[in-house]
Design brief:
alpha/beta
Length: 404
Amino acid sequence: MYQINENYLKLPGSYLFSTIAKKVNEFQEKNQDKSIIRLGIGDVTQPLAPTIVKALHKAVDEMACEKTFHGYAPDLGYEFLRSAMAKNDYEKRGAKISADEIFISDGAKSDSANIQEIFGKDNKIAVCDPVYPVYVDSNVMAGRTGTYDRITEIWSDVIYMPCVEENNFIPELPKKTPDLIYLCYPNNPTGTTITKEQLQVWVDYANQVGAIIIYDSAYEAYITEEDVPHTIYECDGARTCAIELRSFSKNAGFTGVRLGATVIPKDIVCNGVTLHSLWARRHGTKYNGAPYIVQRAGEAVYSEEGQRELKQQIAYYMKNAHTIKTGLMEAGYRVVGGVNAPYIWLKTPNNMTSWEFFDYLLEKANVVGTPGSGFGPSGEGYFRLTAFGSYENTVSAIERIKGL
């Protein structure tokens, strides 16, 4: 008789965004005359930039010709895209990352869940709290998190690093020594950032204790302040302790196209084995590369025209973020984020729980956001709004909230 992976049974409830979708659909069925504005899930709304579309069309035409047809992509991804990333994402920032240290994939979400597979089951993980749910959930599935306390919503074998108002939403070095440290900056869900000097402290700490930092930089394109690093490899010593996750979803609108990358320097060695070689073997076995067409579109991101067009899209979303943040502050809410990230993190009013405020906002203003408790224990009493809607809907949503 076959057996199931019982670690999956440990996952509490349903996936956060599935629960939100269910609640919104139930509300809409009962209130079909209501116009709902969705500022919850971080999905982009602007169409692909013209330069990206042009690259897609050209690649499709190549696929229709025998001489230029492409089948499976190479395990690491096509060299033209990896070289473009190495030159434009890293070299220009003074980071020493070569093209063969970049692995192209079908998205950063996949990689953020799968990267833990190359590490032993007994590794202790440390996560910011609140945090993107995939980090913890994927380790639950791997049997690495211990038991779950449904009252405290804490996993026994997870090291939580609270990011709350008292510490300006910046985590402190953990008191217990972790093996794997998940960091995400600009942060999802709080929208906060750390300076290069602050990130250097984490790199030094990881090298000191022999830990690996898994650094999610999916939102680096939204950084506006000069002292905020775009990549962890701007820090000295990061090549020996850091893996970086990159995404094309938020910087180029590829949520419906799917493209991402993971960077693993060859300098990270454990017991004589490089993590680079392990991830390369994993890529070869569990192929999750992006098609040729999509990778050509990714290459176009780094063209002069692509960069100009995408900067305009980023500015559009950040205008939304500014509108949300200033509007909420005018309405008396305590908020952070929205300066270097497309997320705004607000304190729920009147001691409401995160889900109580979700229901209140949906019923009274017909606006959808994301309950902070869905991101971890320290997210209770907070709420996330995203800047990925249209500008018109963003303005309308804030006016509705201000009218409550």
